[in-house]
Structures are given as C-alpha cells and as structure tokens.
Design goal:
The longest helix has 16 residues. The radius of gyration is 18 Å and the shape is globular. It has a three-stranded parallel β-sheet with strand order 2-1-3, sandwiched between helices. It has two domains: about 90 residues, Leucine Dehydrogenase, chain A, domain 1 (Rossmann fold), CATH 3.40.50; about 55 residues, NAD(P)-binding Rossmann-like Domain (Rossmann fold). It is built from seven helices and three strands.
Length: about 180
C-alpha cells in the first residue's frame, strides 16, 4: 500500500541549488521505498498566513500521511507558527510543541528527526551511555533542545553550556565556546 508523504517547501529568496538537490534526493528516496511524495512549492514572497493555510489544508487531507516543512523558511516567516500548523499525527519531523512534549515524557509520537537519529546510532552501535555526562552545544528547537531531552530520558546528567558572548559584530569570531575547545 502506497502512502503519501507530503513536504511543504517554502524556498528562500534565491533558493540555493543544494536545497533543490536535497528535495530531488528526498523524492527519489521516497520512490525507492514505495512512498508517494508531493511537494508544495510556494513563492519566496509567501506570508506566514498563506503558509499556515497551506499546511492546514495538508493537515486536513486524508490522503496525506506526513508533513515535512523544509526549513529554515524565509526570515519574514514565523517558523514556529508554521510548525504548529502541522497536525500532530502528521508531524513526521517531530517539530511541533505537541511532539516535543510527547518525546520529553516518553509518550507515543514522532521524535525530532536528527536527535532521534543520533539516539538510534548510539543504540545500533551499542554505545553504553550509562554514567556519561553529555554536553549538548546548541539550543535550537529542532536539534539542541530535543537532543537534550532524549538524553535526559536516558537518565543522564546533560549540560547545555550558555551561549558565548557576542562581539560588536554579533558573532563569536568563528570560535567555539571554551568548553568545546578544552576537549
């Protein structure tokens, strides 16, 4: 039985070739495992409201079984609002607050993809994490925070270093925080 995996893509202005290449690879990968894929391309001028309406339509479509919002979206889009428009049962990327809460409490639901993949690699390679003290650098809603919660779920003491102070240009000068350089 073929199911539709749907990805809503909102290209940034001057969408980089690498994004188009990734979308092509995803479509090919879906086809190889018998999953139909449908990409909803929207202009770079799409507003948050228009994107939310499009995602809402996909969420209500019974032929759509999963939704992936390609990100980062344009700077003019409220990405969190767009993520929250995805129906929890179709949030296959684990990006909604509902999915984060379910993952945090060990309840059924979708796990954030990259952190979930990291945990699977640890399991598949029989990495014994008992007694370890992992450090998660980064606090993004799609990687750092979910990774920390999954590690906490293994009853580990997780450290999330504070952000380095920014220089006058708003950057850290390309340097990693001292806590990372020490290792």
């Amino acid at each position: 039985m073929t199911k539709n995996a749907t990805a809503a893509a909102v290209p940034r202005n001057n969408t980089p070739i690498k994004d188009e290449t990734r979308l092509s690879w995803e479509k090919l990968a879906c086809g190889r495992v018998g999953i139909d894929s449908r990409y909803v391309r929207m202009p770079a001028t799409t507003t948050t409201a228009e994107l939310i309406d499009s995602i809402g339509s996909l969420s209500e479509d019974p032929d759509v079984h999963g939704i992936l919002l390609q990100h980062p979206v344009g700077e003019h889009i409220d990405e969190r609002a767009a993520f929250e428009a995805i129906a929890p049962g179709k949030d296959v990327d684990g990006v909604t607050m509902h999915s984060f809460a379910a993952m945090s409490f060990g309840l059924p639901g979708f796990v954030s993809c990259t952190p979930g993949g990291i945990m699977r690699l640890l399991d598949d390679y029989d990495v014994d994490v008992a007694g370890k003290h992992p450090v998660v650098v980064g606090r993004s809603a799609i990687l750092g925070r979910p990774a920390g919660m999954l590690l906490l779920g293994r009853e580990l003491m997780v450290t999330k270093p504070r952000r380095p102070r920014r220089g006058p240009s708003g950057t850290s000068g390309g340097r990693r925080p001292a806590s990372c350089r020490e290792w």
